[in-house]
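Hi everyone,

Forwarding the result from last night's run.
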Amino acid sequence: MQLASLHQHIKQRIDGGLHDLITALPDAAPSLKQAMLYALTNGGKRMRPLLVHLVGNMLDIPDNDQRAISMAIECVHAYSLVHDDLPAMDDDDLRRGNPTCHIAFDEATAILAGDALQTQAFSIVAEHPMSPFADTRRARLVAVLARAAGYSGMCGGQAIDLAATGKQISLAELQYLHQLKTGALLTACVEMVCLVTEHLESAHQQLLCRFANRIGLAFQVQDDILDVTASTETLGKPKGSDEAQGKNTFPSLLGLEGARQELTKLHQEALQALDGLPYNTDYLVAFTDLMVSRSH
């Protein structure tokens, strides 16, 4: 199966699982429930579930384990976007070509939707059906996801980003910012799969996490490049919004050509990590190529 077909198949399954998860909740707060569903199904590409399933299939872990990890990661990702778009954060009106959650509903509902999606993620890791081996790893899965989502990951990166807005920072500082803000959750996709894989050599786990770290940073570099080069229609949000807000980006720091060179370097480092694995990594190589060549 081609990567594009597999991606579409996984996307449909995760979309369906998330839809069923939210619609099964009691109707005590219908507006909140609708906002949660809106945030989860507002045109996401499901790149993180794709990564979970590619690594999970390569390591031969059960499908239920892959689904639980994927849905939990997507709940955290969706919550982060809802909160990032708020007036107190990035103050965006468009997300994937549609009104952001606080515009479609209201600010208070959007805040609560983000809060509820974050906690839903941990409910999935704690309670969703998983294999007997994964059952024994639930506490560690929670710890990995919490670290990736919290102070030492996504939230810490967003705080650094906000503090650096309008100021000049170094390349090392920009890389560190995005290793937390964007890369931590992508690395968690791989690390959580590794946790539920029996008999995985630590050296192979380290290479997989190295791969995820490099591709997570490459994902952000390409995002920054697209913010400069792609149209508003293609991006689904205003073109040049990062520059307009005084954000530090790879093109603003390195120039467009310098950012492209950085992307190529990260791409090669990700592929080098895969080269050290004794598995069929063809799908992960194709995923890497997709991440650095995507148009939106």
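Residues 42 and 96 are 7 Å apart (CA to CA).

Cheers,
N.
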